[in-house]
Amino acid sequence: QGNVTQKFEIVQVFGLYTREGFHENFDCPIKVVALHPQFSKSNYKQFVTGGSKLLLYERNWLNRWKTSVLHEGEGTISNIQWRTNLIAWANNVGVKIYDISTKQRITNVLRDDVSLRPDMYPCSLCWKDNQTLIVGWGKSIKMCAVKERNPTELRDLPSRYVEIVSAFETEFFISGLAPLADQLVTLYFVKENEEEEEFRARPRLDIIQPLAESCEEISSDALSVRNFTDNECRDYRLEHAEGESLFYIISPKDIVVAKERDQDDHIDWLLDKKKYEEALMAAEISFKNIKRHDVQKIGMAYINHLVEKGDYDTAARKCQKVLGKNMELWENEVYRFKTIGQLKAISQYLPRGDLRLRPAIYEMILHEFLKTDYEGFATLIREWPGELYNNMAVVQAVGDQLKKDPTHRTLLTTLAELYTYDQRYDRALEIYLRLRHKDVYQLIHKHNLFASIEDKIVLLMDFDKEKAVDMLLDNEDKISTDRVVEELRDRPELLHVYLHKLFKRDHHKGQRYHERQIGLYAEYDRPNLLPFLRDSTHCPLEKALEICQERNFVEETVFLLSRMGNCRRALQMIMEELGDVDKAIDFAKEQDDSELWEDLISYSIDKPPFITGLLNNIGTHVDPILLIHRIKEGMEIPNLRDSLVKILQDYNLQILLREGCKKILVADSLSLLQKMHRTQMRGVRVDDENICEACHGTILPSDMAQPFSVVVFNCRHMFHKECLPSSGTVSTTTRLPA
């Protein structure tokens, strides 16, 4: 690499990093010079010069310069760029590329805007890589890719050709180009119009992303150089050192060095623009690469900025991320929020895990809430672990506050929670019962407080009877049934609820209270009295009958009379007091007593509606002829025809059922008979293990060649024929030939 000083007839090369240099005088005018990319190596002493001709200078073995003309006749050569074996240059007509390895010119890219003077708007050239040349001229940029030609297409053509892969127009005139990864750095000469006057503005250094037919602007900076209002497009140049991200902007009076921004520069810019959140995010993402900034300091600057804006909630939320495990910073921030009256904002973000602040900090915040916000205080007590603060001190403070407002529900509930954490469950239970709080049952179960509620059963049931009874029944081993009944003796309506659920769970467990339950059901729950009487086997029937008769409970009295054996009196009550023939018929069907049917017919014979009911339902239990013969002649009976038709239909149905049953019976009998016959006719296995039941010898002879006879009964007993007393006693004989 070298810095080239260009003068007519003299070429001087100075090494930037070595002492190697080069100085030669030439006898022709030289405008531009391009060295071989590996000029510093002794084997590559080559360079080209441009003026009216493009000349290649090579040292021969005598260390003299050999000159070759590569191109001439198209005006002054204004720019030369050499990369590997490819030399690109620009003259008044366009851009050419020469392949020094094959000594062939491989392309000619013509100038787009011929109206521009080439000496005022010179061409800018740069190699992006060994195969891609970027050409900028006027407001046009082209990206030219050098490609190998297919061998079948060679003929007289060069082995390489150029394809323009991207071409687009820019807003301003191009003074210089340089590659930056897959992007481009462009130096623009800017002209602007104002009030119909054209003036020169500051040059711009842009980074663009080339596309196929356009480009996308990535960044743009206006450069402050001296006398920019007097400069032309040709007065600016952009140079870059390959392998380094340094770019040199050259103007007549200034040289500006540009370099890629690092993350520290980006964070500086964000902080200058007061974009603290983005700066903090950038620092967190690149914390390993930043050198001049600290993530926590940026975070503190962000928090300070939010506090100054009055956005206290966001500032408090950011403390979690920024302050992290630094307890000293946490305490400083808490005191700052106290000073500005915003303790509530930071309260929900304080550390509450393994790392925590001093208890005094949490107590200070709790006292602040206790003075101004009962609901917020209660929320903190629920959310904060009790070990964060001195529980007794907070209980005392709540007690002092309750002296001013002794019935405040939120304060009382919070005090109960504090008592619970302090394991003073009796005090918490008293408050919950007083408030009828839903958590009272959970507290009792969780801390096994059944011994403490033996004298508070009435309070629990007044609060929620169903939950209280379920809890008492689920824990009979801790609070006995006798104890519960004793506590509820003065509250019979609650006692009934308890005993009713006990009976539903187990009909025998509370049998000693069944007599008392009769009166309780009669008083508070008559719909369940009859089911109770049906299911209970420990209920005194006389006592139950007495209570039901006193209260004129007919259905219950009927049931008790029938259960005590007085069915005729029960039927009489149904007929006389209920007047319900259907119920009377159901009762008679249930008892299945011919005398009851006779009583029912006798009572109904002079009551046409009852006769209709009997005719409709009696056919399957009593011969309807008995009823029909006793009906007085001339009596009007509602729906008699329909009733008689139903009797006939029922009779026909019975006949059909009987015939069907008979057929089924005959078929089943025949099937079973055939099965029995097949079973009895089936052969019986006889082998060496069977013995004669008379002589106890093996049933089969040792010589199977001799004929023998064996008798086998259906009971599977076997005999030799000769062992039986006489052949006349044998009903069945099975002979097995040898």
TrEMBL record:
Record localization: Endosome membrane; Late endosome membrane; Early endosome membrane; Lysosome membrane
Protein origin, superkingdom: Eukaryota
Gene name linked to the record: vps41
Single Gene Ontology BP annotation: cellular response to starvation
Protein name per Swiss-Prot or TrEMBL: Vacuolar protein sorting-associated protein 41 homolog
Domain spans labelled Vps41 beta-propeller: 11-260
Bilayer topology term: Peripheral membrane protein
Start and stop residues of the CHCR repeats: 469-613
Organism, as annotated: Gadus morhua
